[in-house]
Amino acid sequence: MREKGLATAAKKAGRIASEGIVKAYIDGNVGVLVEVNSETDFVAKNDEFQEFVTDIAKTVVKENPADVEALKEMKCGVTTIGEMLTAKIAKIGENMNIRRFARIETTGAVVEYIHAAGKIGVLVEAEAENNDAVKECLRNVAMQVAALNPKYLSSDDIPQDYKDHEKEILIAQLKNDPKNASKPDNIIEKMITGRLAKEFKEVCLLEQEYVKAENKENVAKYVASVGDIKIKQFVRFETGEGLEKKEENFADEVASMIK
Question: Is the pTM of this model over 0.70?
Answer without folding.
Answer: yes
